[in-house]
Known about the structure:
By secondary structure, the protein is of the alpha/beta class. It has helices at 21-29, 48-64, 75-81, 95-102, 114-122, 147-155, 172-177, 187-190, 195-208, and strands at residues 9-12, 37-41, 68-72, 85-88, 106-111, 127-130, 161-164, 182-185.
Amino acid sequence: MMPSTxxxxxxxxxxxxGCDLVAKVAAALxxxxxxxxxxxxxxxxxxxxxxxxxARALRxxxxxxxxLLLVNDRVDVALAAGAxxxxxxxxxxxxxxxxxxxxxxxxxxxxxxxxxVLRARDGGADFATFGPIFDTPSKRGYGAPVGLDRLRExxxxxxxxxxxxxxxxxxxxxxxDAGAYGVAAIRAxxxxxxxxxxxxxxxxxxxxxxx
Length: 211
């Protein structure tokens, strides 16, 4: 299971956001205590050379801030960039294979059902993202949101879950109350004028649910 020292707030990138991603991440992480936020670098469809260059730039910014960087989908890019781990698609390589390549790096899996969570758990993942919890434009083509009830059921399976999909400051607490270990956001911080304010609000919400 994921060590309690790993973050409960995850910032997921979106290549369609149309912003200076490295600068946005730097602003989101500025002044935070170490190891309380993870940045998930997601950029599907980006050529490998460009993907690696951005991952390395993010590694520098995220590392200086003392936070964690995970690369989505690409174990090779995670290794080459010196990232802290990888976030695998549900149908990607098994978590155990990724761990064999990464060594001590964090291995996470994207899950959309209880069956996905069981496979990730039994495969040795540290945690999984689970969703989409709520409606979100990027996931409408994949079907209806899973909702809080399915999150609650999946959270009982023993693998820490990070809720993803349509999460903002207005509903983050409901996701945590449904059993999620943490929350992941995309638009809520990427579209914010001051992403640092949003990140701190998410951290405050998570802290109230630590017990």
